[in-house]
Design goal:
Blueprint lengths: L1 E4 L7 H5 L4 E6 L4 E5 L15 E5 L17 H9 L10 H37 L4 H4 L18 H8 L1 H21 L27 H31 L9 H24 L14 H21 L17 H26 L12 H28 L16 H34 L1 H6 L10 H14 L5 H26 L3 H4 L5 H34 L1 H16 L13 H19 L3 E6 L1 H11 L3 H4 L2 E6 L3 H8 L1 H4 L1 H10 L3 E4 L52 H17 L44
Parallel strand pairs: 1-4, 1-5, 5-6, 6-7
Antiparallel strand pairs: 2-3, 3-4
Length: 784
C-alpha cells in the first residue's frame, strides 16, 4: 500500500488520490484516511496503479476565520518552540534540566506579562486614571458612571474591583482553550509498540514523546494561578498603598498584609510546580495530577475574591492620581526576563560546546535563547500596542503638542514604542541587502541553469534563463534565514535594552526626557514615540488580518503556514497556552494505521510524505517497532527534515538523529529541487543507495519541444508526485522492500504470511516486541 501524507497547504482526498470518488475508511472530520471508491479491497501491488490511501490532517491547523485569533498566542508558541531548539549534547542531564527550567520560567513570565497588559488597559488606564478625570470619563456612556461625584463607584478600590473582571475572564479563556484543545487535538493515545532500545536511539522514538498530558496539566494549573495572582497583586497594591500611608485605614491594613502573605506563598507554589514540571517521555505520562496542583487555581481564585472584598470598603481621602502604583510591574517583569534569557544563553552555549560538531545547530547554539527573546519582545510589543491605542482612544487630547489628561501607559511602553522605528529601519535595510544579494546571485547562476539543459545551449532564451536562475536564488534564501534572524535578534536586544535602561533611569517618556533640549531632538523623540505607538497598534490588527487570510486563502496559507506549522508541530512543553500541537494527533494516527494494517494483512507500506507531511511520516516511523518497520519504506519529497528542522532543532532532527532513522529504516528515498524554498536534501551519507536522489529538473523542459509544446511550469515546492522520478523511486522502494523481506516479487507478499496473520506474531526483529492485541475481524474503524 502507498500511504500519502500531504503538506502545509493541505489537499483534498480527491486531489491526493487522483480520483473523485474518495471514501473515508477510518478517522473523523478532523483527520481521516481515505481510499478511492473502486480500491477498497486490498490487492497485490501494481506499479502503475498501487493500492493508495490518503491521510488528510489540514483541519488540525486550519478552519474558520475565528482561529486567526490563535495568532495572538504567537509569543507563547515561539517560547514553547524555543524549548525544542537546544543543541544535541548527549548526556549532560543536569544542563538539559537547567535549560528546561529556565525556558519554563521564561514562559511563566510571558503569561504574567500578558495578564499585566490586560490589567493596564482596564484597571490602570480605565478605572484608575480615566475615571478620575472627568474630561476622559465623559467621553463614553459605557463608563461615565464610574466618575459620578458621590456615586458608589467613585471609590478607586471599587472601580478596580469592577475593572478586574476583564483580565479574570482573559485568564479563564486561556485556561478553557488549553483544556479544550487538549481534548480535541492532543489526547490521541499512541500505540504500544515497544522498540528494543526503548526509543533512546532517537528522541522522537520515545514511547511518551507524543503524549504529554501530565506536563500540560501541571503547567496549565500553574499559569492559570499566576495570571490570577497577577490580578490580585494589582488589585491589592492600590489598597495597600493607601492603608500604609499616615492617613490610611488601620483596621484594614492587617487584612491586606495577610492577603499579601498568602499571595506570596501561593506564588512560591506556582514557581515550585513550574520548576518541577518536566516531561516524562520514557513512558506515557498518565499519572493523575496531585491534588495540590488541581487545587492551586481554585485557591488563587478564592484569594482574588477576598482581595475584591478587601477593596470595597470606603477609605477616607482615597483618590487615584497619576499611574497605578503597580505600574512598576512591567519593568520588573522585563528585568526578570532579561536575567532568565542571559542564564538560558549561558546554558545553551555550554550544551553547544559539548555537542558533536555536526549537531550544533544555528547561531552557535543560541537559536533557542534567540527565539525566547523574540517571543518576549513580541509579547511586549503586542501588550504595549494595545495599551497605547486604548490610551489614545481614551485621551485624544494627548498629542505631540503637549500632554493630555491621563498619565498614560507604563513608561516602558513609551520607550519601546520610541525604539520600534529604529528596528523597522534595520529590517528595511536587511531586506534591501538580501534583495540585492539575491539579484546578484541570480545573475551568477545563469550559466549553472543552462548546464542542466545541454540541448538548449545553442539557443538559450534570456528571459527564461533569468527567470529560472532568480527562482533558484530566491529558494536559497531559506539557507540564509539564520543570519537574518540573528541580525534581527541582536538589533532587538540592543534596542530593547536601551529602552529598559532609558525607562529605568529617567522614569518619564522619551519626549519628556529630552524636553528642554534642542528643538530637533525633542521633535524627533516625540515623532519616534508617536510613530512607534501607532506601529505597535497596527501590528496587532495586521497580525489578526494575516491570520484570517491564511485560514481562508490557500495561497496565503502556503506562504504563512510553514512557519506556523513548524511551531505547532511541537508538543506544549514550556507554555500550556500555546496553540495546540497537531502532531500529537497526527503521529499516533499514522502509527496506528501502519501498525494495524501490517498486522491485518502482512503486507508492506510505502509511506509518502510531502513537505510537513514528510516530518509527520518520519516521526511516525520512529514510533514503530522493528517487525512493523521492516515492512515500511519512506518516500519524502519537498522535505524540510534537514533544511529547517535539522538546523533549528538539532537534538531531534540533526544529522545524528536522521542517521538513526536511516539505520532503523533501510528503505528511504528523498526527492528535492533546487527551486524549492522549503524542501531540500536530508544529507544522510555513507549508504548505497543514498537517501537523496539528485536534484530534480525544474522545469522538466527548458523550452518548447515535441513532448512539451507549451512552456513547462516552474513547480518549486509542489507537484512532486507528477514527476516521472516519483513513480520510479516508488517502484524501486517497493522492490527493495520486498527483496529485503525475502518475499515473492510477483505478489509482494512474504511466503509465510497470509492475510489476517499479524506479522509481529511471526517473531521479533532485533529484539523488538509488540503488545498490540490481535484486532477482531470486522471491527469498525480498522478499514478494509
Amino acid at each position: 500500500m502507498e500511504l500519502l501524507v500531504h503538506g502545509v497547504g493541505g489537499a483534498t482526498p480527491q486531489e491526493m488520490l487522483g480520483n473523485p470518488g474518495a471514501v473515508r475508511v477510518t478517522g473523523d472530520r478532523t483527520a481521516a484516511i481515505h481510499r478511492a471508491a473502486d480500491d477498497l479491497v486490498d490487492r497485490p501491488w501494481d506499479d502503475e496503479r498501487p493500492v493508495r490511501e490518503a491521510y488528510t490532517w489540514s483541519n488540525l491547523t486550519s478552519g474558520n476565520g475565528a482561529r486567526a485569533l490563535w495568532l495572538l498566542l504567537l509569543p507563547f508558541m515561539i517560547v514553547n518552540m524555543a524549548h525544542w531548539m537546544r543543541p544535541a549534547a548527549p548526556g549532560h542531564g543536569r544542563s538539559h534540566r537547567c535549560y528546561d527550567v529556565l525556558i519554563r520560567l521564561t514562559a511563566l513570565s510571558l503569561t504574567v506579562l500578558l495578564v499585566a497588559g490586560a490589567c493596564v488597559v482596564t484597571m490602570d488606564l480605565l478605572a484608575w486614571q480615566c475615571a478620575a478625570a472627568p474630561l476622559c470619563a465623559d467621553r463614553s456612556t459605557w463608563f461615565r458612571f464610574l466618575a459620578e461625584p458621590g456615586g458608589w463607584w467613585a471609590h478607586p478600590g471599587r472601580r478596580l474591583a469592577l475593572a478586574s473582571a476583564l483580565p479574570t475572564l482573559l485568564v479563564g479563556l486561556l485556561w478553557w482553550l488549553s483544556r479544550r484543545t487538549w481534548s480535541a487535538y492532543e489526547s490521541a493515545y499512541p500505540p504500544v509498540r515497544l522498540r528494543a532500545d526503548g526509543g533512546r536511539g532517537a528522541q522522537l522514538g520515545l514511547p511518551g514523546f507524543w503524549y504529554g498530558r501530565g506536563v500540560v496539566g501541571r503547567l496549565r494549573a500553574a499559569h492559570t494561578a499566576a495570571g490570577l495572582l497577577t490580578i490580585a497583586t494589582v488589585l491589592l497594591t492600590g489598597s495597600l498603598v493607601r492603608d500604609l500611608s499616615p492617613a490610611g485605614t488601620p483596621h484594614l491594613l492587617p487584612i491586606g498584609l495577610v492577603l499579601a502573605g498568602v499571595g506570596t506563598v501561593l506564588g512560591a507554589v506556582v514557581i515550585r510546580i513550574v520548576v518541577r514540571a518536566g516531561r516524562t517521555e520514557i513512558d506515557r505520562d498518565v499519572r493523575p495530577l496531585p491534588r495540590y496542583v488541581t487545587a492551586l487555581p481554585v485557591a488563587c481564585l478564592v484569594l482574588l475574591l477576598l482581595c475584591l472584598i478587601h477593596s470595597v470598603p470606603v477609605r477616607g481621602g482615597f483618590e487615584s492620581t497619576g499611574a497605578h502604583p503597580a505600574s512598576w510591574g512591567f519593568p520588573a517583569v522585563t528585568a526578570i526576563q532579561l536575567v532568565l534569557l542571559i542564564c538560558l544563553a549561558a546554558v545553551a552555549v555550554r550544551l553547544h560546546r559539548a555537542a558533536p560538531r555536526s549537531d550544533r545547530g544555528v547561531l552557535g547554539g543560541l537559536g533557542g535563547p534567540a527565539a525566547a527573546l523574540l517571543g518576549c519582545a513580541l509579547g511586549g510589543v503586542l501588550t504595549g500596542g494595545v495599551a497605547a491605542r486604548f490610551a489614545d482612544w481614551l485621551d485624544p487630547h494627548s498629542t505631540l503638542a503637549g500632554p493630555g489628561v491621563l498619565t498614560g501607559p507604563p513608561v516602558l511602553h513609551s520607550w519601546q514604542a520610541a525604539t520600534l522605528p529604529a528596528l523597522l529601519c534595520v529590517m528595511a535595510v536587511l531586506a534591501l541587502v538580501v534583495a540585492i544579494r539575491t539579484h546578484l546571485e541570480g545573475r551568477r547562476l545563469v550559466d549553472g541553469v543552462l548546464g542542466h539543459y545541454p540541448e538548449e545551449r545553442r539557443r538559450p532564451h534570456e528571459v527564461r534563463t533569468t527567470h529560472l536562475a532568480s527562482a533558484v536564488a530566491r529558494a536559497r534564501l531559506t539557507d540564509r534565514a539564520p543570519g537574518m534572524f540573528g541580525t534581527l535578534v541582536i538589533a532587538s536586544l540592543l534596542l530593547g535594552a536601551g529602552a529598559a535602561l532609558g525607562a529605568g533611569l529617567t522614569g518619564v517618556t522619551p519626549a519628556a526626557a529630552v524636553e528642554g533640549g534642542p528643538g530637533a531632538v525633542s521633535g524627533f523623540a516625540a515623532l519616534s514615540q508617536a510613530v512607534g505607538s501607532w506601529s505597535m497598534g497596527i501590528g496587532v490588527v495586521v497580525l489578526v488580518a494575516m491570520g484570517r487570510r491564511a485560514y481562508r486563502d490557500p495561497a496565503a496559507r502556503r506562504t504563512v503556514g510553514i512557519l506556523w506549522d513548524v511551531g505547532t508541530f511541537w508538543p506544549r512543553a514550556a507554555h500550556p497556552f500555546a496553540p495546540p500541537c497537531y502532531a500529537e494527533r497526527a503521529v499516533p494516527d499514522l502509527t496506528w494505521r501502519m501498525g494495524t494494517w501490517v498486522d491485518l494483512t502482512g503486507g508492506r507500506i510505502v509511506i509518502s510524505g510531502h513537505s510537513q507531511g514528510s516530518v509527520l511520516a518520519a516521526a511516525a516511523v520512529w514510533q514503530l517497532d522493528a517487525p512493523t518497520r521492516s515492512r515500511v519504506a519512506l518516500l519524502t519529497h519537498g522535505s524540510p527534515l534537514h533544511r529547517l528542522y535539522g538546523r533549528w532543532f538539532p537534538r531531534y532532527f540533526g544529522p545524528t538523529a536522521l542517521r538513526s532513522l536511516r539505520d532503523d529504516l533501510r528503505c528511504w528515498r528523498n526527492l528535492w529541487r533546487e527551486t524549492d524554498p522549503i524542501g531540500g536534501p536530508v544529507r544522510v551519507t555513507g549508504d548505497d543507495p543514498p537517501v537523496d536522489r539528485g536534484a530534480l529538473l525544474d522545469p522538466r523542459h527548458y523550452g518548447r519541444n515535441l513532448l512539451s509544446p507549451l512552456p513547462a511550469p516552474l513547480l518549486g515546492h509542489g507537484d512532486y508526485a507528477d514527476d516521472p522520478a516519483y513513480r520510479l523511486e516508488r517502484a524501486r522502494l517497493h522492490a527493495l522492500l520486498v527483496g529485503e523481506a525475502g518475499a515473492d516479487p510477483a505478489t509482494g507478499t512474504a511466503p509465510e504470511a497470509a492475510p489476517g496473520v499479524p506479522s509481529s506474531r511471526r517473531g521479533a526483529v532485533d529484539g523488538d516486541t509488540t503488545t498490540v492485541p490481535d484486532p477482531p475481524a470486522g471491527r469498525e474503524g480498522d478499514g478494509p
